Amino acid sequence: MSGFRNIFDQHNWEEEKASIYAKTSRDVEAALAAGKRTLEDFKALISPAAAPYLEQMAQQSRRLTQQRFGHTMQLYIPLYLSNECQNICTYCGFSLDNKIARKTLNKEEILREVEVIKAMGYDHVLLVTGEANQTVGVDYFREAMQLIRPHFSNISMEVQPMDQEDYAALIPHGLHGVLVYQETYHQADYKLHHPKGKKSNFYYRLDTPDRLGKAGIHKIGLGVLIGLEDWRTDSFFTALHLQYLEKTYWQTKYSISFPRLRPCSGGLAPKVVMSDRELVQLICAYRLLDQEVELSLSTRETPKFRDNVIKLGITALSAGSKTNPGGYATDLSSLEQFEISDDRSPAGISHMLRTQGYEPVWKDWEEGY
Amino acid sequence: MTPLVIAGHTFSSRLFTGTGKFSSLPLMEEALLASGSELVTVALKRVDVHNQSDDMLQHVHHPQLKLLPNTSGVRTAKEAVYAAQLAREALETNWLKLEIHPDPRYLLPDPIETLKAAEELVKLGFIVLPYVHADPVLCKRLEEVGTAAVMPLGAPIGSNKGLKTIDFLEIIVEQSNVPVVVDAGIGSPSDAAKAMEIGADAVLVNTAIAVAANPVLMAQAFRQAVLAGRQAYEAGLAPVHRQAVASSPLIGFLDEV
Ligand code: SF4
Description:
A: alpha/beta; TIM Barrel; ten-stranded parallel β-sheet; 15 helices; 12% strand; B: TIM Barrel; five-stranded parallel β-sheet; 10 strands; binds iron/sulfur cluster
């Protein structure tokens, strides 16, 4: 088996962790001054030793982001199609062992949701489901995309990992990007958090970006769920994964997300709590490592935090999000996947962006090229 | 210094040399040996393919020297494939420096024909090292069709102008999963050292050695420059310090409650 798995297997979690925590201010200064930064530089920038350099990191991160992305901010919105799920994930409201009402949107319901999202001004949509292959499998996605595609320029998905052929089959129906978070790269802990269901297969998930790259998907989103394990080590592995993918599937774009564990029904208390300061450090470290990668921030974060970090490296924001199926029009009270912290409307976010000198971008894709 | 591996073959020298333009074959031989090089390109068009006792081949016949026939002179993919097959037969090696330059003035490589030929030659079992412009996208496309390395140019062949394409060479080095050999344009040992410092895996030098007043001494100078450049790369160059740009603080909000 070729692919990232080979590289992953050559790395040891504890050794990488120790090497991150052993970084000194000298390493951080060298990383800040370097032209092209390596993964060792990235380790220094996410290490505790970098804390006193945060302002400097932020200044550089802002400069690099503006140089590459200008003063624009991509807006996106999730459309939850289903909360059915055959997995147990200790941190998720949709987990199989949670006794909640399950719902999968039918065609009429999807179209009603689409109408509300379009009215907000969106032209890109992110389809989200749990993992229930019998009801919400590739056939369901194909049908949903056929319905949705006439209304949106760009469709992305954040659903269960699928086989390469399934991804390839959805591309002609408008699939542009796929987000698949590893949750954690700590193999033993991964098992603890995913005790049951298809998701408990660590390597099948780890191989997903390779399958996406081979299928020729345009954009791949990576990330870990912050709170499950040491975020610095998890982020190092994410960066390792990102660099491998950028070199291998060089025609693909990449994005990183930073979901911090949020309260949910039946939820687990985070093992590791990441402070706002640390999240800023991580965002800047990614930008200093990689000028091209898109960095996105969801409504899990508070308005004040979001208003400030958009200047520091973030290039995509969600706004007006509902995390329950039917949440926009059909079933306003169904149970959400996690609580959101920023409930401002897309118009409100758009206004905030403009007052900060940013142009909100609702559409950035056209079919055919 | 870490050894270089191309298609499973290990080289301890990262200096590759050419055999053109020397004033005599014995001088060429002496310079090649002085360079420490282990890979030597030979223009197929200069070899008498039907004669194993060809003069040129006699002078490069040393156990440490691996021959890399090149297709210099061909103008299309079709001609290149034909030349490659001739070379394989005559020189008993499936290694090939693929060069296709329809332009007789600057001998600039044709990217479209090169990609076509590379794809076909890989299928025919050749170890293909293509000579190309310093074009990062082309280099990735070549890697995808299975070339064993890429050989982007620093400047036009024989110009001795140095690394005119350095910004693109840096991108190629950063992105490549196969060895990057900077070929053409290297005019002085400092150019070679610079190419190695930015992370190139090897350099190929011909004119700068062959045309020097003292080719043997120049070959030694290149040998040391390549070594020094590689050592600097492996040691990790100290960062160039830039002045921090003072501006209003960005993270003040973190302290507000
Ligand atoms: S995280 Fe995904 S797979 Fe796990 S329970 Fe939630 S919806 Fe299901």
